# Entry
Amino acid sequence: MIRYVRVFKKVNVGAAPGMKYLARLFRGNDVTIDQLCQEITESTTLSYPDVLACLKAFEINIAKHVQNGSAVKFNILGSFIPKIKATAKETLEEVDASTIKNFSCRFYPSVDFKRNLAKANFVEAELNIKGIQFKDEEEVVNP
# Structure
């Protein structure tokens, strides 16, 4: 289940801008590599150190290939594609490495991964946390 909260926020775009209520993702705790290793260990015959070694090598090799300008593609998960942002110049001679302003990596989910994401269910997050007090109505997270 994907959890969300209702928030009151200023919306500047669209036909009717102003203060509006909308759903925002309520992110849970991040999953660590240790948690993933434990889960994989429990669902396979691999030991924790074997899984950790594989995941670390996986991480290092993906980064290496993307940093070398190669896309890394997985059938089930998707693709990690390197990309650059550059400043446009008037002539070909003006374009060189100094015109590249940013190098990054974009993740594109596979068709199967997107299909699974489309099946997600949503539930409002329970935010009855003892001790939290809001100053005024604009700060209310769960009206």
In short: The beta strands are 2-11, 18-25, 72-73, 78-86, 100-109, 122-124. Residues 41 and 48 are 6 Å apart (CA to CA). The two ends are 21 Å apart (CA to CA).
